[in-house]
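re: ur question from yesterday

yeah so i grabbed the chain u mentioned. its 253 aa long if i counted rite. heres the sequnce exactly as i have it in my notes:
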Amino acid sequence: MKTLKIKKILVSQPKPTTPKSPYFDLAEKNNVEIDFRPFIQVEGINVKDFRKQRVNILDHSAVIFTSRTAIDHFFRISEEMKIAIPETMKYFCISDAIAFYLQKYITFRKRKIFHSTGKFADLVDVVKKHKEEKYLVALSDIHKQEIPDLLKKSKVKYTEAIFHRTVSSDLSDIKKIDYDILVFFSPSGIASLFQNFPNFEQKDIAIACFGPATAKAVTEAGLRLDIQAPMPQAPSMPAALELFIKQQNKKTK
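ran it thru and got these structure tokens back, copy pasting raw so excuse formatting
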């Protein structure tokens, strides 16, 4: 790409709700404009599609949750199917924050709830202590492969069920991508780019991505990867962007 002074960045995520976001600091310090627009969104699957999976929720004595979204759609599907979740159901959550979120749907003091440190491997260690349970794993259609891999190794009885899916957002109101940098956080975001802009040509637009899976999707799509995080010198995306902006702006002086 040509050396250009960076002026506009598009981040393919929702706008931060806190005024202390590092993206706002980045924009102010480097005199750049940052727009936020989610390229993907999550939608719950309908009852008809859930039934196609041939999963009976009440055949299970415990549920594994790795996100608040999974909790929302588990209870939505249960309600739409008129399934009364028994008080004996146990819940295994990847973090205490997700376990706490269960209060939206159940009374804590009446249920058995277990949680881990935020790492799925640690949650599996908790799960293995309760091998007598029949687990239902509430997932999205796109999920980390380590989830089924670690559960298989644990030798517990479990069933995977998809409760929600990731889909491309409608970006038809964006007539032209006139940004210097596009920032992505998942392979789904790259897929959405080409779904919404099938004739997209990168040219001098810099592509930034977070994580190795997204980096792989960028290169497999035939795009040039210009900025990657996390890296030793840039542990976060705002840090990686700032490093790149300073390098580019220095070259243009």
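noticed a couple things. The two ends are 17 Å apart (CA to CA). also The chain has a mean pLDDT of 93.
anyway ttyl
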